[in-house]
Structure formats: structure tokens, C-alpha cells
Design goal:
By secondary structure, the chain is of the alpha/beta class. The chain is about 30% helix and about 10% strand.
């Protein structure tokens, strides 16, 4: 059992307070422990759920998934997603309950938030939530991933199906809960709760909390209290939506909490008017949060990366599938040692809407010759610093580009295409896995070349740098010659 010691591109704008090193939290783990075990209690019921899932996937017409589908999803990662267990995390009373409050320990404080973006940005949102939990001495409670850019016919996905929570807890020394460990996902009990509305305080176009479907999945009826304007990182600046970690942390403590109560939006279902909860502290949306600037994952000082993201590794299942994909793409036997490789992430897609400075559409995105130069720089650095030779046929291209001519040019360079269509990734693993496997494959490389301003590339770059001591580059785009003579 775990023992807890009961003591202890955007404008730069400095925080009122320096970033904290969250090393004295009362939840800091004082010794290595064996993660709590996960076992199924009802094998027959589990089989029923698996059959139900197969039947759902066999329907040809796509449909929008609802919260009822969560309990019928395959329990693929036995460390974090089984709904029936005989051992429970030490931060809850026991098995998931019909009302989340019945499972909260009175001596423990919690913190949570919701999602409202694409998958990679949602990962960053949860990292921000976890870091905010660290600096406020609260146990973070993360919900599921919900489909935004992959289609509403995709089912929700538990956080622990993607990220290794027991490993995170061991390496970081901090607790982490999932909502399905607190509340039964099949419960029809609607819980009333008060939360802070950050969104209305940091932007001026929408006069309500940031919408999210997550509370509906969790059966939460939320009363939102508008946060004070001083949480905004750059006051009265409409082009930045950022809040600082420490301004939000102030609202977690009695003094500033009490001074800023009052401006409440009634909950949609019960029309309740509740102040922000003190036991389960919650904020509507934590993507636009930083210590120094709003978007700082690209920088080594990012505290959310240093104390959270660096320890948030993919599950063994995801890593194993990624490894199989890499060896198969290289035409190697599955039992062959994994060679050193370099990955490229080229994002086009919706980035075409950011081509304001390009005189012609074809001038916006970096040509493959520019990307090849960046690949060569990574190859040279790996050879010079680590004596690792990565030939061109060990370079993997991942991209949302659909132009066959562009892909033919990629092949002509000797690079390998990560082809999820040919791999039948969606058929084998589901709609979520093309994007998840791309991230895991990129993270496993000795080198990485990414797209400037892509948050997907930002996280992959950080993983390669800190997990593999790898070599990385980011190429500029947006106008003709954008990446000329750009060294980084």
C-alpha cells in the first residue's frame, strides 16, 4: 500500500510569482511501491461487454457515442481501466460509487477539469491540470478523452488506456486518479457541483464557461462562478487567452476564494447556484495556462512538462504496438532489434488557414527540400554526438497530407510512410489509434523533425529530447523561404 507523508506566437509576460518546484507537497511519495493490482471480478460480465462492443462496431452506419458506451469498452490496459477491482487507490474510499462524493476521503482534497479540443491539446490540458494539483496539494482527477477531431462515432477513451499511470506515480512521486475510479460510469445519479469559469475571464467573445461534453459523461450538473479578471496573464489583451498557474492556484485557497465568490451561472439541469467546490475543486478549461507564457511546452523550463509530461509515458500496450508498426514499416521481422530511426511530423490540414503571409498557396508550407535539410542536420548531430548512423531508409514520415504526388516525393527521398490505411489501424484498434500511435512512434525515435507551431510536434520534440536524449529540429513555414537560414 502506498504511504503518504502528511507534511509536507504569444507575448512573454512574467508571473507575479516564480514557478514552483512542487517537491514539498503533502502527497509526495516517500518510497517506491508496488502499484495497486487490478483484477476482474466478473469475467462473465466482461465477456458480455466485449461481445456488445463487437456488435456496436459491426454496425455500418456511424453513430455518436454516449456515456453508456464507456462501460462496454474493452478493458485493454489492466493497470488503469478495469471497472471492477478488489484493490483501490488509497485516495478514494473504495469501489466507484453512484455519487462521486461518497467515494471522496474527507482528509484528501481533489482537483479536476474538462476537455474541449483535439487529442494532443487535451493531453496538454490534463498535464496542466495535474501540475496545478501538484502546486495546490490536491489529487488530480482526470476524465476520459472524448472525440473532437476524429469523429463523434468514436468511443470515449480512458486516460489510462494511453498513459501509464502507475509508472507516472512512481517516477513523479505524485498521485493521479481517473474519474471512473471515483464514480461508477454507469451511474444515473446527477451530482451538483460548483466550478470556476476561467473561460469567461480570459476572452471577451463568449459569456459563459467553456463548453465540454465531459460533464455529461460524468453526470455532473455544474454551477459556474466567473473567475476574477486578474487571472488573465495579459490583462485587457484580447489576442491571448492565457491564465497563469499561480493566479489559478490562488483560487484554491480560502482567502482569495472567499473574496471572489458571487457571480454564479445556474446549473443547466437543477438550476442550482453553488459556489466553487472546496473538496473537489474544478475549473472549466485549463489548456490556456502557463507559468510564463501561454504556450510554453516548446521550452525546457515549462513546469507542466518538467514535473508532469516528462513522467507521463505511454502504456506498455501502446509502446508494443508502436514497435510492431516501426519494424513492419522497415520490412523487418517482428523479433528483430528495433533500429535507431528518425521521425518527421508534417502538419498541413487546417494550417492552410494560417497562410496569411504567403503570396501564393504553394508558398505557405515548407517544401520537402527544406525538411530534408532538417533531417540531415539531425542525422549529423546523432552521428557526431552519439555515434549513431541513421540512413534515409530509417526515416519515418507521419503527416495528414493526402496529396499522392507529395507522398511520391517522400518515397523518392527514401523515407518510409507510416500508412495507417495499409496497416488497418482503425479496423484493428479503433479510431483513436492512428493519432496515438503516431505520437508513440515519434516518441521512440532517436531523432525528430517537426512542424513549427504544431502542439503535436512540440510534445514529440520534448519526448525525444528528454526520454531518448535525441536530436530534434522544427522547420518554419507560413511564407516562401520561411525556414531559410533558421538555426535552432
Amino acid at each position: 500500500m502506498l504511504h503518504i507523508r502528511e507534511s509536507a506566437h504569444e507575448v512573454v509576460f512574467d508571473d507575479d510569482l516564480p514557478p514552483s518546484t512542487p517537491s514539498k507537497s503533502k502527497f509526495r511519495i516517500t518510497r517506491t511501491y508496488t502499484p495497486y493490482t487490478r483484477k476482474r471480478l466478473y469475467l462473465l460480465l466482461g465477456s458480455f461487454f466485449a461481445i456488445a462492443t463487437i456488435l456496436v462496431l459491426s454496425v455500418e452506419t456511424p453513430r455518436a457515442y454516449t456515456r453508456d458506451d464507456i462501460s462496454s469498452q474493452p478493458t485493454s490496459h489492466n493497470q488503469s481501466t478495469l471497472l471492477f477491482t478488489d484493490d483501490y487507490p488509497p485516495w478514494v474510499r473504495g469501489a466507484p460509487t453512484q455519487s462521486f462524493r461518497d467515494n471522496l476521503r474527507p482528509e484528501v482534497q481533489y482537483i479536476t477539469s474538462w476537455l474541449s479540443a483535439g487529442w494532443n491539446n487535451d493531453v496538454m490540458t490534463y498535464m496542466n491540470l495535474i501540475y496545478l494539483g501538484m502546486i495546490t496539494d490536491r489529487v488530480p482527477v482526470v476524465a476520459m478523452f472524448v472525440p473532437m477531431h476524429i469523429g463523434s462515432d468514436a468511443p470515449p477513451l480512458f486516460f489510462g488506456d494511453v498513459f501509464d499511470i502507475p509508472r507516472f506515480t512512481r517516477e513523479s512521486g505524485y498521485p493521479l486518479l481517473e474519474w471512473h475510479e471515483v464514480k461508477d460510469m454507469r451511474s444515473d445519479t446527477w451530482d451538483d457541483i460548483g466550478c470556476w469559469d476561467i473561460w469567461e475571464a480570459v476572452q471577451y467573445g463568449e459569456h459563459h464557461a467553456r463548453p465540454s461534453v465531459v460533464p455529461e459523461f460524468l453526470r455532473l450538473d455544474i454551477s459556474y462562478t466567473k473567475a476574477p479578471g486578474w487571472i488573465k496573464m495579459i490583462p485587457n489583451y484580447e489576442h491571448d487567452k492565457g491564465a497563469s498557474f499561480w493566479s489559478l492556484a490562488r483560487l484554491a485557497y480560502p482567502d482569495d476564494r472567499e473574496k471572489n465568490l458571487g457571480d454564479i451561472h445556474a446549473s443547466p439541469l437543477h438550476h442550482a447556484l453553488l459556489n466553487p467546490d472546496e473538496h473537489m475543486l474544478c475549473y472549466d478549461y485549463l489548456y490556456y495556462v502557463g507559468a510564463s507564457i501561454t504556450s510554453e511546452y516548446d521550452y525546457a523550463y515549462s513546469p507542466a512538462w518538467r514535473y508532469v509530461g516528462k513522467h507521463l509515458h505511454f502504456t506498455a500496450k501502446v509502446r508494443d504496438i508502436a514497435r510492431q508498426y516501426v519494424t513492419k514499416s522497415f520490412g523487418l521481422p517482428q523479433t528483430a532489434p528495433l533500429p535507431a530511426y528518425i521521425t518527421i511530423h508534417v502538419r498541413h490540414g487546417d494550417f492552410k488557414d494560417w497562410c496569411w503571409d504567403a503570396e501564393k498557396p504553394e508558398d505557405c508550407f515548407a517544401p520537402l527540400s527544406v525538411i530534408a535539410r532538417r533531417v540531415k542536420e539531425v542525422q549529423d548531430e546523432l552521428l557526431d554526438k552519439k555515434h549513431i548512423h541513421v540512413p534515409m531508409n530509417r526515416v519515418i514520415m507521419t503527416s495528414d497530407e493526402s496529396d499522392p504526388k507529395w507522398w511520391a516525393e517522400v518515397e523518392a527521398l527514401g523515407w518510409v510512410k507510416m500508412d495507417h490505411g495499409a496497416m488497418k489501424t482503425e479496423e484493428r484498434y479503433g479510431r483513436w489509434y492512428p493519432v496515438i500511435l503516431d505520437a508513440a512512434i515519434q516518441a521512440g525515435g532517436a531523432g525528430f523533425v517537426g512542424t513549427d507551431r504544431s502542439t503535436f510536434s512540440m510534445l514529440s520534440r520534448r519526448r525525444v529530447l528528454d526520454w531518448n536524449s535525441g536530436a530534434t529540429r522544427m522547420f518554419k513555414w507560413g511564407k516562401k523561404g520561411a525556414d531559410d537560414h533558421q538555426d535552432e
